[in-house]
Amino acid sequence: MNDLFLPAVHDAFEPTPAAAHARIDALDPARYARTRNHLDGAVSRLSPYLTHGLVDVPSVIARLGQRHTLTPADKIVFELAWREYFHHLWRHWGDGILSARRPAPAARYAAELPADVREGRTGVPVIDASVRTLYDTGYLHNHARMWLASYLVHLRKTGWLAGATWMYRHLLDGDLASNMLSWQWVAGTLTGKPYLFNAENVARYAPALASRGTAIDDSYESLDRRARHAADCGPEPGAHTGIEEPDAGAPPAESAALPTGADPVWLVHPWSLGEVPPGHVAVGWIEPGFHARFGWSAARWAFVAARMRALCDSVVVGNADRLRLLWPTARLSAQATLNPFYAEALRDARVTLQPVPRQFDDPPRPQPSFSRFWQTVAPDASTARPWHR
């Protein structure tokens, strides 16, 4: 393999709304639809900005609609709806997204990743390139994420939660619902059907990494049997050069001086890095319980901290008790989030919440599949939110 990285991903993500807007303005919906499955396709790379709240789905569609005629039938709109679908399920299931919704295909899975996968030395070119790219950039094309997850779960017999937690730790755009439920979708524990891929599929969408002659060079019928009955296939024969997995990063420290007399206060948490409402004192906020459970890379912390510095003069680290100790009578406001520890702290500190904008309706009952969700919300999508033409 001449290139140890996936194509066209060495791309800096500047943590500013202007950078997000530039990506939206450069996006061609028709070209996106034609090429999005290819690893060098014209995808948006907006996910870090969506995850961290610098933009939201309605604002992306509105801005894109200023240059292009959009309808719910456009592929870019359809794919953005997946994010809202996963958050729809998260609202209903809460921490249940961290548990399998259906039985997995095989009887046993390991609770830890194989060392050769962690170190990118499986001998399967597309897998090793994906691991290296994940560590190097914090970003993976969605197809590469699916291939990596499928290989780990179905051929290496690694539990989906172990794989999802590992990937989340290294992603710049890690969204808990999208990541965990995507891994469940691949594992078959969300819908009951495992996602499988083979070398022919890779050759079509990433020809330089086709991985012929490796464990993935097999028919779908055989791969399905292996997913259900075979043991860990192990790495490819021979010696393969690996890399070291990066350590987790550390969150910002609390500021020495906090505006304890401020009122009203807008709490800027890592998923609300958009503009601060007028008339508020902005204070960055880190809830340490969440980050003790779900580690982040140093690059992700750098992204979040840089944007917090641009919005806030200070950062507080603590739970609900800490917030109310600092501002016992102040009016505290923040954007709502479903992330555990943060959500509970916002509730317990009696923070006034601003909902995250949605493009599509949020059905009152959990929809069992994306297709059912889409059938429910798409007919009214053009009237529920304005479509810019």
From TrEMBL:
One of its GO terms (cellular component) is cytoplasm. The keyword Lyase applies. Gene3D superfamilies: 1.25.40.80, DNA Cyclobutane Dipyrimidine Photolyase, subunit A, domain 3. It holds the Pfam family FAD_binding_7. Signal peptide: none annotated. It comes from Methyloversatilis universalis (strain ATCC BAA-1314 / DSM 25237 / JCM 13912 / CCUG 52030 / FAM5). This is Deoxyribodipyrimidine photo-lyase. Its cofactor is FAD. FAD binds at residues 32, 79-86, 173-175. Residues 227-257 are annotated as: Disordered. InterPro entries: Crypto/Photolyase_FAD-like_sf, Cryptochr/Photolyase_FAD-bd, Cryptochrome/DNA_photolyase_1. Keywords: Chromophore, FAD, Flavoprotein, Lyase. Binds 1 FAD per subunit. Residues 78-202 form the Cryptochrome/DNA photolyase FAD-binding domain. GO terms for biological process: circadian regulation of gene expression; entrainment of circadian clock by photoperiod. Belongs to the DNA photolyase family. GO terms for molecular function: deoxyribodipyrimidine photo-lyase activity; DNA binding; FAD binding.
